[in-house]
Each structure stands twice: as C-alpha cells, then as structure tokens.
C-alpha cells in the first residue's frame, strides 16, 4: 500500500517526527560508557508510554523476524546494523552504537536512526562509516521532491556509498510510512536514475542508508532479529522520515 497524506495531516506527521527525534537525542546523551542496552530500551519505553504514544516495535512480527520483537528501540553495537534486539550488554569506550526507532503518535508513524561512537575514542574506521551514511542520507533527501523518480533518490544514496568504497546490500532499505511503519514504496540504497515510482506531495518516506566496512552480506543472531555483518566488521545506519511537499521536501525527524 502507498499512502498519500492530506495537507491537514502534515502537522501531526511533524509532531510524530519531532517526538522520535527527541527520544533518539535523549538516548544518545544517556548512552555513555557503562550504560546497559536494556536501560536504553527501558528509558525509551518510559518516554513513549509517558507521552501516550505507541511503539511500532513491541508487537512487530514480520516474516523475516522471530517475533514479536518485544522491545521499544533497536540497539545495534559495532557489527550489528539492523533490528538490533536490546540485551544485557554494557557499552564500552569506542563502541559504535546504532539506535533505530519508530513510534506512532496521533495516528501517524515516524522512523529514524542514528549512529554514533560511545565515549572518548574515535576509531577512524567508525568515523568514516558514520560520515558516509549521513552524507548518503543528505544526498537522498536533496534528490527527493515532487515528480522525482524513486530511482533518482536511490541513485543519489548509492553514489555516495559506492564512492566512499562500500558495497551496498539491497535486501533492506528505506520505505514508505504513514499510518503504519512499513509501507510501499521500497527505497533501495542504490538504483538507476529515471526509474521507479514518481514521488507525489503527501508521500512520507523513511530513507535509511546503512553500510558495512568490508561486506554486503548479513547474518542473523540466535535471537532471530539482530542482523550483523557476515565478517564481523563494523557497521553504521542513518535514517530520517521525510515528507514530499508541493514545493520540495521536509525532514520530519530532525531536531
């Protein structure tokens, strides 16, 4: 299903996006050396339920997971890049942490992800990974707009990632979003310009470039959810929910 919002729904979409961004920034500030991933999940739960909002993850049970997910936020550490299931792990200096969050408030969902390094260490490889996904996300946003083909957005994202020296996995990418978290159209992180669905005002998209240092292959943890790099290399993931408007693009999940 591809859902097109009316102009009257956009203010609520903005509120949902701002709330997701607020939670992620709060968790980033709290995620210090010695923080447990289960604490991050608990704090996220408190913020969501305290606002009368709804988690997109707790009861989420797609075909690719061993569901329901049962937690409020995805926490991927180092080689874990997608669907990281919170568990009893204490963050260490230099860990690369990816947080992915989707919440419904006022009937609309927003989805965003950030990656950052915990503590004072700044491993060059991790810095480069995060930078590449953030630049690819910015390129995808810049390419989007009314009348643009989806392939143009995917091409913009993929060009940045490939030019940075990373291969691109096409199993998982961005997606449409609205009254539910995952909708059509799919947004691949690489593609051919001039192809695919034509973007329309009222369409919400979650763009989410992610990469791994030296592979494009994933393996799944025994928890049935957490996806890691097949080689154990580090990974990074950046995501924003955007709205296609009459005259361009609005980023809904940016502080």
TrEMBL record:
GO terms for cellular component: cytosol. Pfam families: Peptidase_M24. A divalent metal cation 1 binds at residues 100, 111, 239. Keywords: Aminopeptidase, Hydrolase, Metal-binding, Protease. GO terms for molecular function: initiator methionyl aminopeptidase activity; metal ion binding; metalloaminopeptidase activity. The keyword Protease applies. Substrate binds at residues 83, 182. One of its GO terms (biological process) is proteolysis. Binds 2 divalent metal cations per subunit. Has a high-affinity and a low affinity metal-binding site. The true nature of the physiological cofactor is under debate. The enzyme is active with cobalt, zinc, manganese or divalent iron ions. Most likely, methionine aminopeptidases function as mononuclear Fe(2+)-metalloproteases under physiological conditions, and the catalytically relevant metal-binding site has been assigned to the histidine-containing high-affinity site. Residues 13-246 form the Peptidase M24 domain. It catalyses: Release of N-terminal amino acids, preferentially methionine, from peptides and arylamides. It is an enzyme of class 3 (hydrolase). Belongs to the peptidase M24A family. Methionine aminopeptidase type 1 subfamily. HAMAP family: MetAP_1. Monomer. This is Methionine aminopeptidase. It comes from Rhodococcoides kyotonense.
């Amino acid at each position: 299903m591809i859902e097109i919002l009316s102009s009257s729904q956009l203010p609520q979409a903005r509120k949902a996006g701002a709330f997701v961004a607020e939670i992620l920034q709060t968790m980033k500030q709290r995620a210090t050396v010695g923080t447990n991933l289960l604490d991050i999940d608990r704090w996220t739960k408190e913020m969501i339920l305290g606002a009368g909002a709804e988690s997109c993850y707790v009861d989420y049970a797609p075909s690719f997971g061993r569901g329901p997910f049962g937690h409020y936020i995805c926490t991927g550490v180092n080689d874990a890049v997608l669907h990281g299931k919170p568990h009893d792990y204490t963050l260490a200096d230099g860990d690369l942490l990816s947080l992915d969050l989707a919440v419904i408030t006022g009937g609309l969902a927003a989805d965003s992800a950030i990656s950052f390094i915990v503590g004072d260490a700044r491993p060059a490889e991790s810095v480069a990974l995060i930078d590449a996904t953030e630049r690819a996300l910015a390129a995808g946003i810049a390419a989007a707009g009314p009348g643009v083909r989806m392939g143009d957005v995917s091409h913009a994202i993929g060009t940045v990632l490939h030019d940075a020296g990373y291969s691109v996995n096409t199993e998982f990418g961005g997606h449409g979003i609205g009254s539910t978290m995952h909708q059509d159209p799919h947004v691949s992180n690489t593609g051919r310009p001039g192809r695919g669905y034509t973007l329309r005002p009222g369409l919400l998209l979650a763009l989410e470039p992610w990469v791994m240092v030296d592979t494009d292959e994933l393996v799944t943890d025994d928890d049935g959810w957490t996806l890691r790099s097949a080689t154990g290399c580090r990974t990074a993931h950046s995501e924003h929910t955007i709205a296609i408007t009459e005259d361009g693009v609005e980023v809904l999940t940016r502080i």
